[in-house]
Amino acid sequence: MNQRGQVGLDIVQKVFLALLVLAVLAFAIIITMASLGDSSVAKTSSGSFTVSNETLLSVNDTVTTPLSVAGLGDVSCSLIHFINASSDTTIPATNYTFADCAVINLEGPFNISDWNATYTYTFNLFGDPQKNVTGGTAEFFSNATTWLTLLSVVVIILIISIVLLAVRGFAGTGRNGGL
Q1: pLDDT score of 38
Q2: Nearest partner of 78 among 88, 86, 65, 67, judged by Cα
Q3: How far is CA 121 from the centre of its chain?
Q4: pLDDT over threshold 80, residue 101
Q5: Is 96 in contact with 130 (CB distance < 8 Å)?
Q6: DSSP-assigned beta bridge partners for residue 103
Q7: Three-class SS string for the chain?
Q8: Are 129 and 74 spatial neighbours (Cβ–Cβ below 8 Å)?
Q9: What pLDDT is attached to residue 79?
Q10: Is 0.85 topped by the overall pTM?
Q11: Which sequence spans correspond to the domains of the chain?
């Protein structure tokens, strides 16, 4: 077989493929860092925190009013006290039920009024490890920006392409003599 002018062609293809992989990964890292730098996840940490005078609007006896941290994944709250926002009167514990970082007012003199809540909460940023193993990928794609999701798909396709090229290379083309 005449192979004049083809010296090193396989090596050049592999070098270009490596450069393509590095360029896509660099682009993905840059976009990821930019996206995560602006996200609230990067600014939140685990630990115990105290919140003073968080205003809860129109606390009543029909609808549960959640604290602002109630939406965090793995959070537990401990109430210090509630104060009526208009009269600065401490609201007795007999006037409300507090559970799961939310309050519901029992009928009484503080119904349908604004309350100020002072409480502590413990938050674990990473949540339950067993839930993270199964839900990590799904949550990544649901919380990621569109660009980040598209880049992840491109990287996955690129990895699959590299694996296919490697398998095809090991399959043997008969040029090396083989067995």
Answers
A1: 53
A2: 67
A3: 20
A4: yes
A5: no
A6: 65, 98
A7: CCCCCCCCHHHHHHHHHHHHHHHHHHHHHHHHHHHHHCCHHHHCCCEEEEEEEEEEEEECCCCCEECHHHHCCCEEEEEEEEEECCCCCECCHHHEEEECCEEEECCCCCCCEEEEEEEEEEECCCCCHHHHHHHHHHHHHHHCCHHHHHHHHHHHHHHHHHHHHHHHHHHCCCCCCCC
A8: no
A9: 92
A10: no
A11: 43-123, 129-164
The residue written with tokens 């067995």 in the block is 179
Q: Residue written as tokens 């798909």?
A: 153
Q: Is the pLDDT of residue 103 over 60?
A: yes
CA dist 41 → 17, 51, 125 (Å): 34, 19, 8
- Quick: pLDDT tens for 40-82: 544 455 678 889 989 998 888 888 888 988 887 778 899 999 9
Cα 23 to Cα 139: distance, rounded to the nearest angstrom: 26
Return the structure tokens found at 100. Answer: 């799961």
The amino acid sitting at 175 is: R
Task: Give the pair of three-digit tokens for residue 172.
Answer: 């043997």
Alpha-carbon distance of 68 to 47, in angstroms, equals 16
CA–CA gap between residue 75 and residue 51 (Å, rounded) = 14
